């Protein structure tokens, strides 16, 4: 059974498992020496040029598991020594150039950067402005624009190259979406882990510890039923598991009411989308909904009814690791872990999900659960406003950060009649978050099925039912 899509994810998971085992066995003082040897025993290397470099990179990964670079508080960080195999990129002529007579590439170049030498196109990099017109003009596709995967995946354009051919992240542009983490083929882009905080919270028995699970969990651990997952999470030491979709139910009416009052609104559920608006479109900040994200809203409901609670969120989202540290979220969310980290917790503690019973999970409504996919928020708000007899709701579900940029430019220039803008930084929505185990269309199908399994289509009723259950 393959739990991960890439070997980079598998390496990340293997190291996490070893760190958790070391924590449980009081062997943390040896993690920087013993785990690298276990990952790369030698004598021959399996991933890099030599076992010494492999072990050094594992040590850097352990540092990220322990909280990352203390001097850099950003959630997405680079492991410099892991970033050395990708070409810098740019436009260049491949050996496929046929030496044709039309020379369309040369004629298309606005800077005269292309000349024909011995019948082949040659690009003068001192003149080239990377416009790409020659790429489009070549009839043989012999000229390509080679972009590093991390750069191509970053819709916020926060990644650039240093003089040493290393990728670096501009923290003033980064929206913490984490797409570079998933797309970097060498695992040089890494998310900080808060697993140590979670382990300490679970070890302290003076609090009730709640797990909030994002609805996208149903498409991730596809080898077991979601209700077996809930039992497994409780066996990790959690007192109760709550759906983040419950918080989605709580904010649906707020967003509907706010849209009615404002006339134009952008959604508030995706932290990376909100970061993107603030960085790239500051003039549109006035349109961002002031309601909480589902994660924070769920944490508020839990701590309102159990003030002594500790709350850990599980999801596929990198930007939640940034959001929970912000002032508006910190009182309600104590830690955020990824689905990758949840899988590592199960396996490090020998919790075999196939063999355990189910625990009923029925906290949220259909509308709350489908927040996980692009268009889910829109569907929920539309249901409420149509019930109220309002006809002028004209939404757009912006799918991925590039689509968000397109529609935000339209809103900025007053060229569109849309009045509700749902923004999701990840293509497809939260279900395709970078820190998930799976990224495919099956995940979307599972979200839809999970929504249909809910016994309620009344968001307000689900919140009331949860609060009553806590009082019992």
Overall description:
There is one protein chain. The chain is of the alpha/beta class. Helices cover 40% and strands 12% of the residues. The protein has 19 helices and 15 strands. The protein has helices spanning 7-24, 31-39, 51-65, 104-108, 133-137, 149-153, 179-183, 195-203, 226-235, 244-262, 271-280, 294-305, 320-323, 339-348, 366-369, 376-387, 401-412, 441-453, 459-471; strands spanning 76-78, 90-93, 114-117, 120-123, 143-146, 159-161, 167-169, 189-191, 209-213, 240-243, 265-266, 310-315, 335-338, 395-399, 420-424. Strands 10-9-12-13 form a 4-stranded parallel sheet, with helices on both faces. A 3-stranded parallel sheet has the order 11-15-14, sandwiched between helices. Helix 9 links the parallel strand 9 (209-213) and strand 10 (240-243). Helix 1 (7-24) crosses helix 3 (51-65) and helix 2 (31-39) crosses helix 3. The protein is globular, with a radius of gyration of 24 Å. The two termini are 41 Å apart. The mean pLDDT is 91.
Topology:
Blueprint: H1 7-24, H2 31-39, H3 51-65, E1 76-78, E2 90-93, H4 104-108, E3 114-117, E4 120-123, H5 133-137, E5 143-146, H6 149-153, E6 159-161, E7 167-169, H7 179-183, E8 189-191, H8 195-203, E9 209-213, H9 226-235, E10 240-243, H10 244-262, E11 265-266, H11 271-280, H12 294-305, E12 310-315, H13 320-323, E13 335-338, H14 339-348, H15 366-369, H16 376-387, E14 395-399, H17 401-412, E15 420-424, H18 441-453, H19 459-471
Parallel strand pairs: 9-10, 9-12, 11-15, 12-13, 14-15
Antiparallel strand pairs: 1-8, 2-5, 3-4, 6-7
Helix pairs in contact: 1-3, 1-14, 2-3, 10-12, 10-16, 10-19
